Amino acid sequence: LVKVVVYVPCAHTGQVRQALYDAGAGSIGNYDCCSYVMRGEGSFRPGEEAHPYCGEAGQIHHEPEDRVEVILPRYKLGKVLQAMLVAHPYEEPAYDIIPLDNEWRAAGSGVIGNLPQECDAVDFLAQLKQIMGCDNIRYTAPCRPTIKRIALCGGAGGFLADAAYRCNAHLFVTGEMGGFHHFHEYAGKLMVAEIGHYESEKHTKEIFYDVIRKKFSTFAIHLSKVETNPIKYL
Question: Is 206 annotated as a binding residue?
């Protein structure tokens, strides 16, 4: 996360703040349009070639201004700054970009969600095996007749099994748990399925392909067909 702080003449605070919101800034958990505003006074002296919104060239000017603060995920920074600069009346807006140590709770290593309908756990794994192209799936006994709430983490996701259990998941799917003892730990509490480290991540190339193609429409992209899985099955 980062914080953007911008100083705005008071009459334009509303439009600049709305532009920040519209560009994706100011969301905290289940709340949006979050900001902080503090009134103060800014000073500046326009140069001879400046075209100031207020004040005169060569004269120190004092202007009532609002300090507007918003937070946002770093990947949205470019879009937010562009929107702010368009909405701001000043020729040279003063703003700060402050890195934050706060965690962004909307993103993490895994996902959790509900199936449209409950289904048999083994039937679900059979379908998952076909979709993911797995040679086999290792799994623990189901803890209930049917499942609906699924947690997923690609790769070595054993460290998230406890989080999946706390989120009331019926099944936790990951590439590898990281040790046989982890299967025992959740026996009777959470069904765990291990589909293979490579198998759980191999489809990310299609995700990257789509993202790059949308952002760079003239960039030639090719999906590799090289098999890089070091693990073989009999």
Answer: no
10-residue stretch averages of pLDDT, the chain, 234 residues long: 96 97 92 96 93 92 97 94 97 96 76 94 93 90 92 91 92 87 78 92 89 86 85 82
Cβ-contact 4, 84 below 8 angstroms:
yes
In the chain, the amino acid numbered 231 is I
Residue 215 has a pLDDT of: 84
The DSSP-derived string for 12-65 is: GHHHHHHHHHHTT---BTTB-S--EEEEEEEEE---TT---SSS-TTS-EEEEE
Q: What domains does the chain contain, in order, with CATH numbers? A: 2-99 (3.30.70.120), 111-201 (3.40.1390.30)
Contact present, 110 and 160 (Cβ < 8 Å):
yes
- The pair of structure tokens assigned to 113 is 């969600």
Q: Give the model's pLDDT for residue 106.
A: 66
Q: Are 190 and 212 in contact (CB under 8 A)?
A: no
Q: What is the pLDDT of residue 85?
A: 97
Strand partners, 8: 66
Q: How far is CA 226 from CA 106, 132, 201, 208, 214, in A?
A: 34, 17, 14, 16, 24
How many angstroms separate the CA atoms of 224 and 46, rounded?
A: 56
Segments in 45-132 forming alpha helices (H): 77-87, 121-132
> 59 vs 46, 48, 92, CA distance in Å?
7, 10, 16
Binding residue per annotation — 201?
yes
